[in-house]
Amino acid sequence: MREKVVIGHESSGKPVEFDVAELLATRLLVQGNSGSGKSHLLRRLLEESAKMVQQVVIDPEGDFTSLAEPFGHVVVDGAAYSPPEIEALARRIREHRASVVLALEGLEVEQQIRCAAQFLGALFDAPREHWFPALVVVDEAQMFAPSVAGEIAEDTRRMTLSAMTNLMCRGRKRGLAGIVATQRLAKLAKNVAAEASNFLMGRTFLDIDMVRAADLLGMERRQAERIRELERGHFLALGPAITRVPVAVKIGPVQSGHKARAEGLMALPETAPEDMASLLTDGLAEVAAKAAPPPPAPPPAPPVEDVSESIARAEQAQVASSDGGDPALAAEPNETVARIEAIIGELANDDTVVAQSSSAQYQSFLTRCRRERLIGPMPDMASFRRKFAEAGAGLDELDEDTRAQILSLASTVDDDLLGPFYVIARAAHAGEVLVDEEALARAYGTSSPGRIRRLLGHLERQGLIVVREEFGGGRTVMVPGLDTIGAG
């Protein structure tokens, strides 16, 4: 799967690429004064990576709602829902892996901050089985992670700082990659900005912001004047997902968004002063006397269930349209199930995939299914983990009775211990009593002998295995209740 996107070009014409997989692990900070092109940059990055990763955008000004039509993002109006509903929506967004724009322009500033904080908190607190990779873009981040309290209530500031700190400091383990954009680095909380490893610095004029930007880019302070001289749409880039040395990049064009307004000066209408005065003042008293008709009542907010269905449909449409797939060309149901089993088996024997976290393994599985245009019910996270562990241990090579017996014994085993337990059970069935620590380490995702010892001790305390330590330092393992072929 393609992992890099082009965000722009250097002055020489050389393309500047963004490694999206690396970005998921290292986060991004974008800084620039109003009019420097921050929103254009974010839109370019979102458009280019829309088919590669789930995206969640916190949009206080309604700048990114136009992503909905061309790229399938679901627009959620934050003003239409109560706090519990916003949190429920965030959990469903993680579950269904939908790309979403949370539009907050209909709220007052403090309400925007509280709504975004509760939304981010619910994304962060989603169940472990829903920790799928996602880019979380926060525009105008100085609002949501202020360096000082300002005019907002102290409890609101604590809430939003906690949510933003969790996103940038601890979100990586939960699959959340924070992208924060700000006009003023000096107004952004330092513990939020410090967690980003990638930087795109646009034009800024205040000395304090230039100094902080130069420090983050590793430039000498006398070189900070270079930041003041950047043109609109030009940024200095640095970070493991972009480049190891600072480079100047001009951001490429975008497909969505409002059409550019006419720039520069515009001639005034050729109207005589007395005619203009008449246009402004004639009948003014009569107009003011007429009561303005009340604005139409806003439509009622759709139920949360309807939005959930919309999210699910968007995910299904993304699966169907990925790689230009046609549902009519999808495999028959029985063939689909067989191919899904085969894909899980192939991934379970790929050392690169085995070394990944469970959520990353599941993401790799879904990506393979999309690439092969497999449309239909997919195993959920828990089912996938069990099937992956079975395939990795080679249980499909055993006869049905033996396989059923091992699966029955494993019914109470925790999901993260299934792989090593299956390895032990299969070896015990074959009459092998010596521990194959290399196979256990591969199934458990570790190379630490200490973790292997603790793993065996844990399984023994649960009554699943019996471990006997020998004077020579060796260990033999048996599985109670499992028939064996014979001593090996």
TrEMBL record:
Residue stretches making up the AAA+ ATPase domain: 24-214
Name the UniProt record assigns to this protein: DUF87 domain-containing protein
Organism: Alteriqipengyuania halimionae
Xref: Pfam families: DUF87 (PF01935)
Upper lineage: Bacteria, Pseudomonadati, Pseudomonadota, Alphaproteobacteria, Sphingomonadales
Matches recorded under InterPro entries: AAA+_ATPase (IPR003593), ATPase_Atu1862_pred (IPR014588), HerA-like (IPR008571), HerA_central (IPR002789), P-loop_NTPase (IPR027417)
